Amino acid sequence: MSETHATIPPGAPVFPPGRYGRRREPGRRRPALAALLVAAAVAALGLASYSLYDKYGDPAYGAQLVSYSDITDSQVVVDFRVTVPAGGSATCALRARSHDGAEVAREEVTVTARPGESHVTARHRLTTSARPFVGEVVRCRPAG
């Protein structure tokens, strides 16, 4: 049956008969397939993230700032606690910042735990180039 002006609604496009092939019905959506593909992608990314963190992340070395004190125009004393593997050592980056946020001192300090212990409490004096406002432990990593 060919389309005529009497069989098509107003505003619908008119196609010549046989020119564009058979008209298809709107396709059935497959939400289950899309959800399955998304779940597989999320699982693959999660597995990759976990394996990379396990390989390159180092949760055995953690630092915690205990306090900073003795602030003068040229120094700050930083007390910090480091978690290391039992009897291990870590190199920690310490810094001091001025009131406007500028870094006025940075040093790397190596701390070593006593045999059988996994926590080290340390104190270090940072010599600064201007009056510090705060002392910080930036990060700790394996020594060496």
UniProtKB/TrEMBL annotation:
Annotated keywords: Membrane, Transmembrane, Transmembrane helix
Organism field: Micromonospora olivasterospora
Region (Disordered): 1-27
Transmembrane helix among keywords: yes
Pfam families on file: DUF4307 (PF14155)
Transmembrane portions of the chain: 32-53
InterPro entries documented for this protein: DUF4307 (IPR025443)
Protein name: Uncharacterized protein DUF4307
